[in-house]
Amino acid sequence: MQPNLPYILAISFQRGIGDAMARKIIQFFDSAEIAWNSKPTDLMKISGIGKQLSQDFGDEKWLELAYEEIEYCTENKIDILTFYDEDYPNVLKECIDAPLVIYTKGNIDFNKIGKKNVSIVGTRKMSNYGRNFIIELIENIAEFDVNIISGLAYGCDIEAHSQALSNKLSTWAVMGTNFDRIYPAAHKKVAAEILEKGCWITEQPSFRNPIPEAFLQRNRIIAGLSDVTIVVESAFKGGSLVTAKFANEYNREVFALPGKTTDALSLGCNYLIKTQQAFLIDNSKDIVEYFNFDIKKNTQQLDLFLTFSDEEQLILNYLKMNGKQHIDKMSFELNLKSYELMPTLLELELKQAIKTLPGKFYDII
Fold first, then answer.
1. Distance between CA atoms of 285 and 291, rounded to whole angstroms?
2. Which residues of 172-191 are buried (b: 16+ CB within 10 A; e: fewer)?
3. For the chain, where are the alpha helices, taking DSSP H only?
4. Residue 256 near residue 230, CB atoms below 8 Å
5. Closest by alpha carbon to 201, among 146, 252, 243, 151?
């Protein structure tokens, strides 16, 4: 245990002090222990520290609670990471309101070079449109070194975690509760599976009861850990829009899935796109191109062994250039009737050159 840990924890428990102010206090005194034992008059030399806060600072009950928390975390194999630890996520340190302390469970390297962190967030009342998008997205980026981040909530969050697990990707669950109170309880099974290839993250100590504000606060952690945040479906007001706001403030890219203007679950996404707070995304190709992943399509190998008719090659070239497409759009742009396309699409599927997706969509394998 590092000598300053109990004092850093005690400061994080102290009422009335946010994360940025806590780091400011520690920096002023060069040590959490020295800060904890400082006089009120010395504390008041720091801009933003008033008389009342300086007098309340350093209550011994918080230090006692800090030692209890350290013991609890040790017994339950929970790691305590402070802002000053080497293992603390580097990308989170870049955020002005980064948590002073986070608690993690699992075996994970937050600072692995080359891994891309993609957060997927959205409404708790996900539609089939949103579900199919998440399935297609994760399935097609699973071959790359990608980690999926979300908040373990109903709807888009749990679908993102589940699809990551199905495709053998690591996934991180950022919680608004401590690890004793996994919410919702219905997701405990998925949460347990996450620990096998990922981790849990929270800033809530074991003794703190759940509060609604904590779920909004955790959204800044989701955004801060991510290279890219994808909003799948959202009403005009929702927690996922808060995550997008944080991501923009941290200069991280935001993507949003568009939808019908009459669809309540797409109002938030459409708003983000319209106000240029997010790029439009409609398939996995957008993320693959954004990260400049090295695409190794099976069709490149198939071309060496299979021959394609002129019409088959036309469709292959079209899908290679445009990505996943609906049959009606293909029919229009290729100037072919749907009934003329169907036999060719079937033949290409039998040759394992393309695949059929839900909703009459087709894409390159």
1. 10
2. bbbbbbbbeebbeeebeebb
3. 5-13, 19-29, 32-36, 40-43, 51-56, 60-75, 90-93, 128-141, 156-166, 188-197, 212-225, 239-249, 267-274, 285-291, 298-305, 310-322, 327-333, 338-350
4. yes
5. 151
To which residue do tokens 């801009």 refer?
47
User: At residue 298, does pLDDT exceed 60?
Assistant: no
Residue 294 has pLDDT above 80, yes or no: no
The amino acid that residue 282 corresponds to is D
Cβ neighbours around 57 below 10 Å, total: 22
How many residues are given for the chain? 365
Q: How far apart are CA 237 and CA 132, in angstroms?
A: 23
* Cα(342)–Cα(1) distance, integer angstroms: 66
Collapsing DSSP to helix, strand or coil, 16 comes out as coil
Q: Tell me the pTM.
A: 0.79
**For the segment 305-333, what is each residue's pLDDT rounded down to a tens digit?**
456 787 888 888 888 888 889 988 888 88
pLDDT tens per residue, range 50-76? 888 888 888 899 999 999 999 999 999
